TrEMBL record:
Gene: bioF
Swiss-Prot/TrEMBL keywords: Acyltransferase, Biotin biosynthesis, Pyridoxal phosphate, Transferase
PROSITE patterns: AA_TRANSFER_CLASS_2
Source superkingdom: Bacteria
Protein name as it appears in the record: 8-amino-7-ketopelargonate synthase
Quaternary structure and partners: Homodimer.
PTM-bearing positions, type N6-(pyridoxal phosphate)lysine: 238
Molecular function (Gene Ontology), one example: pyridoxal phosphate binding
Cofactor: pyridoxal 5'-phosphate
InterPro entries linked: Aminotrans_II_pyridoxalP_BS, Aminotransferase_I/II_large, AON_synthase_class-II, AONS_Archaea/Proteobacteria, PyrdxlP-dep_Trfase, PyrdxlP-dep_Trfase_major, PyrdxlP-dep_Trfase_small
Pathway: Cofactor biosynthesis; biotin biosynthesis
């Protein structure tokens, strides 16, 4: 076996199928404007939904923590990697979200992998929305639980599958609240009811809802259902403009995760600077939750304009707006055309999205001005004529 040839052939195949990924060559990818080949572009690809990553208050929180605690925790929290700062964040986060306890993880991916594989084993059944994030799928595979995937947002299908299992079987229903590629939302009321009817735990991933809905607390809080959700996971790395992830739950589940979640036990904990930034972000969003409300309002207006032009935005109702192109060659043409129009938009292809649904993905931000929104509308109006 010539391994060099093996990898080269695989990469050539990806290129032939227009599925090859590269790291884009630009600086400060979280900024409202980025520069590519000396061209200034409005950035519609970042998940910095509220524009907090460069906020003075968030940066000062990080700097203050570095000055007091240094640059690294140097170990897992259960060894020597814990500081009072971490406890302060978890206590504050639990109070903010209305839960008994909270636990910090290094990333959203690690959180989902760790939580699911710690709680579930081969004696569990996991019921998962077909469009859940890859980390949920991977966590389920790692757990060795039986994996039942229900059609996207199809809760009649979910109930049909639930009926196959005795009430004594251990069950976990898990869903994203805001789906990262479609921009639509889960019906948490239906999920909670089914969980009660069929004796299941409920876990949600609020990564793309944290900071936006429910006065910054997430979609579960927007709907008044936080007390009905057993495991409420989310991230600091999108709407909150920092890094890391969390889970809110009761104290028993937290203690269970501290003892069983391998991604928590066997990882050096986040640097103090990140924890300081996270504390500052929670404080900021408590006092400025209207930013999330503004984001949803401008998203609604822009989506209406895009639909009027003739673009299919699926069932998006959030700051994430997909524009279905379908054809891979056309997708690249569309992305390049928008760059010439001053807009940088992510082009999303399989396997991230289902085959035949290649798309442009707009990630809007709360600090977009009326002029910038008009620039987006004009760019897409011209794109419609082009393709």
């Amino acid at each position: 076996m010539n391994y060099k040839v093996y990898f080269k052939n695989y990469l050539e195949k990806l290129k032939d199928e227009n599925l090859y990924r590269e790291i884009p060559l630009f600086d400060k990818g979280d900024s409202k404007y980025i520069e590519i080949k000396n061209k200034k572009l409005l950035n519609l690809a970042s998940n910095n939904y509220l524009g907090l990553s460069n906020k003075k208050e968030i940066k000062e929180g990080a700097i203050k923590a570095i000055k007091k605690y240094g640059c690294s925790s140097s170990a897992s929290r259960i060894v020597t990697g814990n500081f009072l700062l971490y406890n302060e964040l978890e206590l504050g986060l639990a109070k903010f979200k209305g839960y008994e306890a909270a636990l910090i993880f290094n990333t959203g991916y690690v959180a989902n992998l760790s939580i699911i594989s710690a709680i579930c084993d081969k004696n569990w059944v996991i019921f998962s929305d077909k469009l859940n994030h890859a980390s949920i799928i991977d966590g389920t595979l790692l757990s060795k639980a039986k994996h039942e995937r229900f059609r996207h947002l199809d809760y009649e299908h979910l109930e049909t599958i639930l009926k196959r299992y005795n009430k004594d079987v251990k069950k976990l229903i898990i869903t994203d609240t805001v789906f990262s590629m479609d921009g639509d939302v889960a019906d948490l009321e239906k999920i909670v009811k089914l969980a009660k009817d069929y004796n299941a735990l409920v876990m949600i991933d609020e990564a793309h809802a944290t900071g936006i809905f429910g006065k910054g607390r997430g979609l579960a809080h927007e709907l008044g259902l936080e007390k009905e959700i057993d495991i409420n996971m989310g991230t600091f790395s999108k709407g909150l403009g920092s890094f890391g992830a969390y889970v809110c739950c009761n104290k028993s589940i937290k203690d269970y995760l501290v003892n069983k979640a391998r991604g928590f036990i066997f990882s050096t904990s986040l640097p103090p600077a990140v924890i300081g930034a996270n504390l500052a972000a929670i404080k900021f969003i408590k006092e400025n939750y209207q930013l999330g409300e503004r984001l949803i309002e401008i998203s609604k207006k822009l989506r209406k304009k895009l639909n009027e032009i003739g673009f299919n935005t699926l069932n998006s109702s959030t700051q994430i707006i997909p524009i279905i192109i379908g054809n891979r060659e056309k997708l690249q043409i569309a992305k390049d055309f928008l760059i010439e129009s001053g807009l940088y938009v992510a082009a999303i292809r399989p396997p991230t999205v289902p085959i035949g649904t290649d798309r442009l993905r707009l990630s809007l931000r709360a600090d977009l001005t009326d002029d910038e929104l008009e620039l987006i509308v004009e760019g897409f109006r011209k794109l419609k004529e082009r393709i």
